[in-house]
Here is the input.
Amino acid sequence: MNSAPLKAEIHAEPTLRLVTSVDEVASLDAVWQALLARSECHPVFSSHAWYMAAITCFVDVSPRVLVLSQQGEVCGIAPLVWDAGTEHLRLASDLADYQDFIVPADSLDLARQLLDTILTSGAGISASETRRLHLAGLRQNAVVTRLMGKAITRNLAQQECWYADLSAGYDAFLATRSSNFRYNLRRAQRRAERSDVRVGESRPDQLAPEQLPELFLRLHLQRFPDKLFSRAEPQAFCRALLPGLFTRGLLRAFVIKQRSTTVGLHLTVQGRHSLAIWNGGFDASIATLSPGKLLLDYQFKTVCRERLIAYDFLRGDESYKRSWSTHHVKIGGFDYATLATGR
Here is the structure.
């Protein structure tokens, strides 16, 4: 009896396509989020929702999503945009502190295929846009950073990112702080109690998600009336993005209430093993009560209670971040000239 010869297994070559329409980006939601869950990227800053809000709320930004597929499965995403205002081909949003290519954990070869395609103006990316490639917000362990290797010099300004290691618990953390730090914290807590001020977390069943952007903008703009969120586009970004993240538990609202009125707010994003403060604000009426100290202390206790390991202050070298932190790292980036000449 003759047996038919076994056919050699055929492995399809990876395919790359460039997505440039908002509708097609919207259709990637499920596969994007599934790939994100397998990656080491930040679950909020690299989320499909964050990217969609960026391309729909900022008029100068248009999608340039490079999608890598193998045997019909999406296995790599470079979430780029073309910014007509700065004339940069860049990662999605300056409002996201940590950015990266989205690939399964430890899949540098897939990230390399994405980067090579960009640098060689493949898959429909124009050479003129490639020359304006500008990758910022890259952590030291980002796949793009690891891909470039130690020989590459970062030529975009680096920024400090401070964080507190809370893996040993709240009491162990507090013991590392100065006696002056602990005294000022206790004093702030006593003053808050005398002023009928309470700190807690508001969840979606207590604070309607659609009300969160307005609460944030009202409190934030009292403190920073002339900065980023005074502009229409960042405000639209908040209204488009925050309610959904809040509903899904990826954005958390820590509040200060005086009697029944919310007078202070920290919005934090949920990481894989940490909380990170994204933005906040407070009413001028409680400025003398050290609202930042009160909110941070409550959040540190929350991190420890939930057995997370860190509280992340994201980018910025403000003195209050240093006073609450135990470590820091740097984020930076590369532009086309470094990428093209250093490989």
Notes: The chain is about 35% helix and 25% strand. Residues 1-10 have pLDDT under 50 and may be disordered.
